Amino acid sequence: MDFESTSERILVLGIKELTSANAAAVKDDVRRCIRPGHRALDIDMSDVRILDSSGLGTLIALHKVMCQQNGLVRIMNPTPIVEQVLELTRLHRLLEITRQ
């Protein structure tokens, strides 16, 4: 997993799966990178092949962190399986989905 950061934005890259095996580590690593000035957390999910309930919990937890800073979480370039899970759980209404 890699991070790119500016004064207002963090981009998370290189996630292959977001499951119970790595969800806590991903959440902790991303939270450590968030600074008070960040207004957007962009998570590139173009390589994610597996997303389970623990991964969804991580996305919700990160959303809460960003909301405390008046920020938002954007899911970028989700794979079809990720998009399907987000729609089935209605998280697509909570998290912004973008394609770039």
Break the fold down into its secondary structure elements and pairings:
Layout: E1 2-5, E2 9-13, E3 17-18, H1 23-33, E4 40-44, E5 50-51, H2 53-68, E6 72-76, H3 80-88, E7 96-98
Parallel strand pairs: 2-4, 3-5, 4-6, 6-7
Antiparallel strand pairs: 1-2
Helix pairs in contact: 1-2
Please describe what this structure looks like:
- There is one protein chain.
- This protein is α/β, with parallel strands linked by helices and 100 residues long.
- The chain has one domain (2-98): STAS domain (Transcription Regulator spoIIAA), CATH 3.30.750.
- It contains 3 helices and 7 strands, in the order E-E-E-H-E-E-H-E-H-E.
- It has helices spanning 23-33, 53-68, 80-88, and strands spanning 2-5, 9-13, 17-18, 40-44, 50-51, 72-76, 96-98.
- The strands form 2 sheets. Strands 1-2-4-6-7 form a 5-stranded mixed β-sheet. Strands 3-5 form a two-stranded parallel ribbon.
- Strand 6 (72-76), helix 3 and strand 7 form a beta-alpha-beta unit.
- The longest helix has 16 residues, at 53-68.
- The radius of gyration is 12 Å and the shape is globular.
- The two termini are 19 Å apart.
